[in-house]
Specification:
- 41% of the residues lie in helices and 16% in strands.
- It has helices spanning 14-23, 37-48, 68-80, 105-130, 146-149, 157-177, 202-213; strands at residues 5-9, 29-34, 57-62, 85-90, 137-141, 183-189, 223-226.
Length: 238
């Protein structure tokens, strides 16, 4: 992977940031992608001071998964770096606070676009541009179910259904493109260890992502559901 590039969507915060730290030394170029440039710049600053990253070329790319033109421009910008894209990891997710019937149509539409339509369009565009090159792994992070990923202040109906749609899309497309050497994997975690609660640490999930990327090319894991055990850490404890 030292002569290839990896793309991490949602690298500015949460799981995407943790995965960026975990994988930073695996690629010649690591592309930190997301909607908010300020968050991406913070991740970039942290990675540049991390041991073992002196030979890695980091780039920031803004993309809004709710905007078709932004997706097209983003994929075009990936071609301009001149390094084959080997890996795409999508950790992006949309939420809204409150109850479903209080949400304006625009908020619902954007959530569906962020969780489902945007990733589908991005995957399509990237495969069209890169399929005959060196793209090997596409990983979409979804969730096991709403009760384990959302707190009571967030409505779960649209989030869960849009992530379920991404699950189905990824399974069907994965079986279609595996014959072309592309492994499309769904990573579906349960409870995260955040806000003082018990659950799976983001570091553990990042370790699983690393394991998926290091699989021999003759092996493919279609989907992984990751649930916490009795020994799952609490909060940020490891």
């Amino acid at each position: 992977m030292k002569d290839q590039a990896g793309v991490i969507l949602g690298a500015g915060q949460g799981l995407g940031k943790v995965i960026s730290h975990r994988l930073s030394g695996m690629f010649k170029c690591l592309i930190l992608a997301g909607r908010t440039r300020g968050n991406l710049e913070i991740t970039l600053s942290e990675l540049k001071t991390q041991a073992g990253n002196k030979d890695v070329d980091f780039k920031i790319k803004q993309v809004d998964l709710t905007d078709y033109d932004s997706i097209v421009k983003f994929v075009a910008s990936l071609k301009e770096i001149g390094i084959p894209i080997r890996t795409l990891i999508n950790t992006a997710a949309g939420f809204y606070k409150g109850r479903f019937y209080d949400q304006p149509l625009d908020s619902i539409n954007k959530l569906i676009s962020a969780n489902y339509t945007g990733p589908v369009l991005l995957t399509s565009r990237l495969l069209q541009e890169n399929l005959r090159s060196e793209l090997i792994d596409v990983i979409h992070v979804t969730n096991v179910n709403s009760s384990t990923t959302l707190d009571s202040t967030r409505s779960s109906s649209v989030h869960t259904s849009s992530k379920a749609a991404l699950n189905i899309f990824s399974r069907v497309l994965g079986r279609e493109v595996v014959s072309d050497g592309v492994r499309l994997t769904i990573l579906a975690p349960g409870t995260y260890a955040r806000h003082g609660g018990e659950g799976i640490s983001e570091e553990t999930l990042a370790q699983i992502v690393e394991f998926l990327l290091l699989l021999p090319k003759d092996a493919w894991i279609e989907s992984i559901e990751v649930r916490p055990t009795l020994f799952a850490p609490k909060g940020n404890d490891q």
